[in-house]
Amino acid sequence: MYAFEYHRPSSIDEAVALITSDDIQFLSGGQTLIPTLKQRLAMPDALVDLGGIEALRGIRREGDHVIIGAGTRHAEVAASDTVAGAIPALAHLASQIGDAQVRNRGTIGGSVANADPSADYPAAVIGLGATVRTNRREIAGDDYFQDLFTTALEPGELITEIAFPIPEVAAYAKFAQAASGYAIAGVMVARMPGGAVRVGVTGAAPYALRATALEVALAADFSPAAAKAVTISADGLNSDLHATPAYRAALVSVLAARAVAACGG
Amino acid sequence: MTETATRTVGTSVKRTEDARFLTGRGRYTDDLHRPGQVHACFVRSPHAHARVLDVDGAPAMAIPGVVAVLTGADMAAEGIGGLPCGWQVIGKGGVPMQEPPHPPLALDRVRTVGDAVAVVLAENRHAARDGAEAVVVDYDPLPAVAHVADAARPGAPLVHDDVPGNVCYDWDIGDKAAADAAFAGAAHVTRLDLVNNRLIPNAVEPRAALGEYDPADGSYTLTTTSQNPHVIRLLMCAFVLNLPEHKVRVVAPDVGGGFGSKIFHYAEEAVVTWAAAKVGRPVKWTADRSESFMTDCHGRDHVTTAELALDAEGHFVGLRVRTLANMGAYLSTFASCVPTYLYATLLAGQYRTPAIYAEVKALFTHTTPVDAYRGAGRPEATYLLERIVEKAAHELDMDPADLRRRNFIQPDQFPYQTPVALAYDTGDYEASLNRALDLSEYAIFAERRAASEAKGKLRGRGLSCYIEACGIAPSAVAGALGARAGLYEAAEVRMNPTGSVTVFTGSHSHGQGHETTFAQIVADRLGVPMANVEIVHGDTSRIPFGMGTYGSRSLAVGGSAIVRAMDKIIDKGRKIAAHMLEAGEGDVEFSDGAFRVAGTDRSLTMGEVAFQAYVPHNFPHDTLEPGLDESAFYDPANFTFPAGTYVCEVEVDPDTGRVSVERFTAVDDFGTIINPMIVEGQVHGGVAQGLGQALLEGCAYDDDGQLMTGSYMDYAMPRAADIPDYRFDFTCTPCTHNPLGAKGCGEAGAIGSPPAIINAILDALEPLGVEDIAMPATPLAVWQAIQDARAPARAAE
After folding, report:
1. How far is A251 from chain B (nearest CA, A)?
2. A123, A206, B214, B261: which sits with the fewest CB atoms below 10 Å from its CB?
3. Do A244 and B784 lie within an 8 Å CB cutoff?
4. Do A254 and B656 touch (CB under 8 A)?
5. Among chain A residues, CA nearest to B289
6. Does residue B797 carry a pLDDT above 70?
7. Complete domains list, chain B, with CATH
8. Which CATH architecture is the domain A5-47 placed in?
9. Can you tell me the distance from the alpha carbon of A74 to that of A77, in angstroms, rounded to the nearest whole number?
10. What is the predicted ipTM?
11. What positions does the domain Aldehyde oxidase/xanthine dehydrogenase a/b hammerhead occupy (chain B) (predicted)?
12. Residues of B with CB under 8 A from a CB of A
């Protein structure tokens, strides 16, 4: 990697104040950023390590929400009794991210800020209708992901925590790419209190989004067969060595059906 | 001192080398740090094909810590030669293969992504890399060709201007007229087009090289990640650097896996050795993983058309094969022999097919050189043969096991001369097949298929009856076929004065467990405890001139050399014992570690004899030399022919295309087995690699020659969770022509498993109308095959 300055602030305000140019970046778990630096694909002037900010850590329940601090590691979410009790699908999702080393370093805030099109957490943000809380505001999950690696975050804006509404029932089904372990497609299906159905899809498109056709079908009939019967359009879906748009489209229905089955639907 | 060592051969002695590996005490090339060493970083081409108009190292020299920038022109100015190919293939009509030059650092042209144009030496790795980025190379990009079928087309970009049509050689083997006649009279012909997918080796330890020069005596030392240090020394001294061998020492210390990729003499080895003298400091280079993907020789990459002719009773009467083989941009050390003498000679398989004709056209492309990778040619032959045999069985509605059985070479037919050069010494193919069918519960497969169907999965079963030629090779045969080296192995067995034994072997262990297996052989034969046996390998200044480890040759050839040296030790010991015991030499017998005078209670242990050998106070020096130290060079009489049957069962998820291997049964005939645990481990690893080829690994270049699978983000290696529980057994027909009866086991798993897996997938998908699937059978490939099979059915509705 190229040389850079390194800061390790202990408060959110301090961290934000250190971002004085576009060439200064936050460093959270570093599971994307550090390999990028090691391959010399990025040359920041400075990194602001968020690892020393206690306020960004932790998991708590607030009424009908589970709140996860942005600096909380995947392994902590996967092992959290609070998460498992309220949204077991979210704990299950976290347990499937990367490998044990990644889960022990990577953070939810880092993942959601990076907005990799194949990352797992975005499916949960969309599928559960989460709210992304930053040092400046609250952003509805539906408005947060905007394009490939592009989010509603403004320069210098820092995710502090993510608030997940507790669904009546939810499940996440993932089809992992064999080499990287990232999702070729991943689908979070949730039935919210009141009966609304949300379906969040990651991996298939340039950014995580809701599968409205599936939501409509499942609102009418919350069954695996209903999900499988939905034909997803391949238009605009991702294409790479590992999957064609048509394959991803087919997987989304199949995974949605599996998620519904896992919901007991 | 009448200890009798316990017999260890045939028992699963724990690996003695593992203590140091598991406790982090292995010593690898990159672990070595020499005083004053500089670090090398290569400037590598981002283009698959380009003219190099200028290389400007001056900006790099301005980087703090950069010591030197050296280019191909610097090497050429000193008369440094190109990297040689060790095997000359003579094509049709006596036309020798094309051997275009392969300068260690490119001169006016780069021919593959990763071709090195310069090397930067610096005080540390970071400065070296900074320097390499600062070197300004003026490239003029040219059209490139990456895929072998494209390289064969008229008008394809030329990799070497003086190699017309990119053809390295156009070679054939077998009797064309006999094969054509067999097809003319055949009752049934099965045809198959297939691709043997290109693989990237991925040893856990990246390649590394450390060059040193001692101006005191003008000597060089190269420490390198090699499977055969003497071969590297010979090639580098005689062909590249023009150095006298006695002034060059090559050391291959602990090496973390090779799989063939560390056989070859690579440019970096020559460059660091040369540069060390140039700058007067040790020069170290360690590949990063991206460099490994780009520059370690790749494997396989065949495009083949095959036809099998059968008579009305299902006997194979003829086989015709046409193969295009990708050589990459340059001929690597053994590249030329892989798709010829290690491939087409195996096309008889386990069968009595009387007429075989194969044509192989080898072509250059703008890609990384392709050379031997675990199995080297034999996986390609086995894949072809076992796919087409299985396809024939399906077409004829015969049980695939029965069709094979009907065509097996029978035990009473050995030695068996195939129509493609090889003469098999021994085997019992039906024994392995029957055991594998039993072990896999072949007869009650239908129950398991029904259970899978109840879960919405498709279950299939595939067979593969492989044979391989190992123990390369009788030097006379190899030489007649174009090898530029002998392929014997060397060993020295040194009894130390206090009775311990040091064995120097030309074989090289980089995961095989030689320190254990060889010590078992020595301990048993000489009657000393294993703990008193040290196996020394990997250092040309210590070991005799041996050829190294590849082609499953270490035990069959290297082990046999050790046995021959021990025979000489015992003969000499007998002389010493006869003298000491005042007996006639013919009356002294050696067994269980002791020399005994027949019919008496007078005896001496090997240890006592060894001591006397070095304290020869009353030796008759005109007839008995002091010392007990013997060496042997063993040149095998024939190849060895391990063979066996693999049975694979898969479940396919028709919705996602995902394949899971549910059951894998391997029954191998490796001849005599020294350490069953180590052998099982070799088969485990080999099958894992075969599973990788069949399901996961596919090296991909785009049409411009850019490597699309240049990291673990896109190149999938098998992980523990991908590997099934194995069912294992062995049958044994000992090799008839080496003193151990051993055949070799290192490559079998990688050779036998891919067709078993693909056959199983096709069996599973047969109800859906899928007739072919290419490796790797990724979820996408399987799903797509299912869609494609459904599409015409839909269209017909």
Report:
1. 6
2. B214
3. yes
4. yes
5. A39
6. no
7. 18-25+488-634 (3.30.365.10), 408-414+424-469+639-796 (3.30.365.10)
8. 2-Layer Sandwich (3.30)
9. 5
10. 0.96
11. 23-143
12. 129, 133, 290, 655-658, 696, 700, 708-709, 712-717, 778-780, 783-784, 787
End-to-end CA distance of chain A: 49
Q: Is the fold of A5-47 the same as that of A57-262? A: no
Q: Which tens digits make up the pLDDT trace of A98-150?
A: 999 999 999 999 999 999 999 999 999 999 999 999 999 999 999 999 999 99
Q: Supply the pTM of this predicted model.
A: 0.97
- A248: closest CA of chain B, how far (Å): 9
AA letter at B35: P
- What does DSSP assign to residue B145? -
Q: Does A41 touch chain B (CB under 8 A)?
A: no
Instruction: Name the residue of chain A whose CA is nearest to B659's CA.
Output: A178
Note whether B787 contacts A246, CB cutoff 8 Å: yes
Domain boundaries, chain A: 5-47, 57-262
pLDDT digits (tens, 9 = 90+) for B278-326: 999 999 999 999 999 999 999 999 999 999 999 999 999 999 999 999 9
Query: pLDDT at residue B3 above 70?
Result: no
CB contact under 8 A, B708 and A241: yes
* Minimal C-alpha gap between B387 and chain A (Å): 25
Q: How far is B712 from chain A (nearest CA, A)?
A: 6
Q: Do A40 and B129 touch (CB under 8 A)?
A: yes
The residue in chain A having the minimum alpha-carbon distance to the alpha carbon of residue B780 is: A243
* pLDDT cut 90: percent of chain B above it: 97
Chains A, B: CB pairs < 8 Å: 43
Assign a CATH topology to domain A57-262: 3.30.465
Spell out the residues 6+ positions from residue B29 whose beta carbon is closer than 8 angstroms to its own. Answer: B208, B209, B210, B223, B224, B225, B253, B255, B286
- Interface check A260 vs B, CB under 8 A: no
* Tens digit of each residue's pLDDT (9 = 90 or more) over B40-92: 999 999 999 999 999 999 999 999 999 999 999 999 999 999 999 999 999 99
Sign of CA dihedral A36, A42, A47, A48: negative
Residues in chain B with CB shorter than 8 Å from the CB of A184 are 779
Q: Test A178 with B780 for CB contact under 8 angstroms.
A: no
What string of H, E and C letters represents the secondary structure of B281-327? CCEEEECCHHHHHHHCCEECCEEEEEEEEECCCCCEEEEEEEEEEEE
